[in-house]
Design the sequence.
């Protein structure tokens, strides 16, 4: 079995977030060891993941038994139980897991995880809340902040930009944004300087968050 090899991932805490994460990894060909303290949760996922184990992840014995030190990447997806989340994380760091990803409940929890030396702290609720805010505000169909202050969004082609080659629109100069790709009749095609937008096209627009927001607002 390749479980425990560098390419496999262990996911601890199979709530909504951990389960979605584990299943998505499986769907894209990554071996996943799932661990949860709840026997019913483990049974429900039996057969869906490469391996599923019931146990209390805060216990050093379990971490040793499962050989978690040999995993390059372990995700602590324990949500509401902050104590269990921190105890588990500190054990993983102690045994030398190369890359620990941990979910934080709030900012203070995130600070503790950073102080422990967690390599990647994720805050799914906060991230999703910010993302939906940008969608609720404007004409954006989707919004992803690639990095602090830089975003990629999806929106319908503004009517005043139709029929003219992108090269002549000067969007980069006028609006500070780029059009990366266009979806027409269900298929995404990389945009090029000669691309002429058509009514109903869906655009992948990127730029600083402020520029993208302003462009979407002017297009609405
Ligand atoms: P979500 O908000 O993603 O659904 P939850 O906090 O509801 O997250 O679920 C986290 C999961 O973590 C639960 O299934 C719970 O059984 C599991 N869990 C909590 N503490 C431990 C622990 N010490 N060891 C293993 N699993 C745990």
Sequence:
């Amino acid at each position: 079995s390749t479980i425990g090899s560098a390419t496999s991932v262990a996911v601890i805490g199979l709530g909504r977030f951990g389960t979605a994460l584990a299943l998505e990894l499986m769907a894209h060909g990554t071996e996943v060891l799932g661990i949860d303290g709840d026997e019913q949760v483990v049974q429900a996922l039996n057969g869906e993941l490469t391996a599923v184990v019931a146990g209390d992840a805060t216990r050093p014995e379990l971490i040793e038994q499962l050989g978690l030190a040999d995993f390059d990447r372990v995700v602590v997806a324990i949500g509401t139980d902050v104590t269990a989340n921190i105890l588990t994380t500190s054990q993983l760091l102690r045994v030398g897991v190369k890359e620990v990803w941990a979910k934080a409940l709030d900012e203070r929890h995130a600070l503790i995880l950073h102080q422990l030396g967690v390599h990647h702290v994720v805050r799914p609720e906060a991230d999703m809340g910010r993302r939906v805010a940008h969608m609720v505000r404007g004409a954006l169909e989707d919004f992803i902040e690639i990095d602090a202050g830089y975003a990629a969004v999806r929106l319908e082609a503004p009517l005043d930009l139709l029929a003219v080659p992108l090269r002549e629109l000067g969007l980069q100069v006028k609006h500070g944004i780029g059009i990366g790709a266009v979806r027409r009749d269900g298929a995404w095609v990389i945009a090029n300087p000669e691309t002429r937008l058509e009514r109903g096209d869906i655009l992948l627009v990127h730029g600083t968050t402020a520029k993208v927001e302003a462009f979407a607002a002017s297009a609405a």
Summary: The chain is about 35% helix and 25% strand.
